[in-house]
Amino acid sequence: MDAVIIVLIILVVLVFIALIKTIQVIPQASAAIVERFGRYTRTLNAGLNIVVPFIDTVRNRIDLREQVVPFPPQPVITQDNLVVNIDTVIYYQVTDARAATYEVASYIQAIEQLTVTTLRNIIGGMDLERTLTSREEINAALRGVLDEATGKWGIRVNRVELKAIEPPTSIQDSMEKQMRADRDKRAAILQAEGVRQSEILQAEGHKQSEILRAEGDAKAAALRAEGEAQAIRTVFESIHAGDPDQKLLSYQYLQMLPKIAEGDANKLWIVPSEIGDALKGLGGALDGFRGHGGQDGGPGAAAAPTRRPPERPRID
């Protein structure tokens, strides 16, 4: 009885183990390789799969998602015999689990070595300056070679990136000095351009100021001349409107003589020739006034003294 129980227990355990080996659950974005007696049989996809226990063997599970693999810095010699260290990052994806398992022993190591050799071939045909400024070109060339070589391994290289390109320390110092000199040169040029532009603007401003000042003076002079002309015209019209006679003009002429003599510095008088005519006109006016008084029989007629001719002013 005890032997029967032991046999039943053993059978239950074997059935449980067989069920475990028969049912295979593959996660999403994964695949599994099945071998039967050491030979490839099929590829298990994501989901619930049934295999023959103790006959079929699941060799390995492969992740089908895109993978990122950084590679350590690799020394590479440029065309001008300078050693640079280049860090690379590879983005790849397994497209065929069978080929990735049986076509190459370790596809990660194979991709790394292929990247190093291809990178040395590409950089060997470029000088340092072109290497530092042609990352896109290097990435495209490297990706093309890797994608072609890894296609038979069931791997697709999606992208290749150069993380860093480090030239030797001495070259870095020289490049830094050159960049500093270029920045100083550009700064000096910009400063000179600023000074030049400032002087040009100041000259333009001074020119415009002088032009505006000259235009203002011209307009002011024109307005003054126009005002003086208008004043002369107004006086002339007033005189003609008042119709002055020779007697009034002679009297006004004599009134201006004391103003001419004003001032301590006037030592010499210049009497115009018209003074005689003015005096004659004034004398005629006085005679007419006296004659008019005598005709009326006033006291002025009897008491009027004998008229003497006016004396001419003495010229010192």
Fold topology:
Layout: H1 2-22, E1 23-26, E2 30-36, E3 39-44, E4 47-50, E5 56-63, E6 67-77, E7 83-94, H2 97-102, H3 107-123, H4 128-133, H5 135-150, E8 155-166, H6 169-242, H7 246-255, H8 257-260, H9 275-295, H10 299-303
Antiparallel strand pairs: 1-4, 2-3, 2-5, 6-7, 7-8
Helix pairs in contact: 3-5, 7-9
Radius of gyration: 62 Å
Secondary structure class reads alpha+beta
Quote the average pLDDT: 78
SSE pattern, N- to C-terminal: HEEEEEEEHHHHEHHHHH
- The N- and C-terminal alpha carbons lie at a distance of 180 Å
Q: Can you offer a commentary on this structure?
A:
This protein is of the alpha+beta class. The chain has ten helices and eight strands. The chain has a three-stranded antiparallel sheet. A three-stranded antiparallel sheet has the order 6-7-8. A two-stranded antiparallel ribbon has the order 1-4. Strand 2 and strand 3 form a beta hairpin. The longest helix is centred in the middle third of the chain and has 74 residues, at 169-242. The radius of gyration is 62 Å and the shape is rod-shaped.
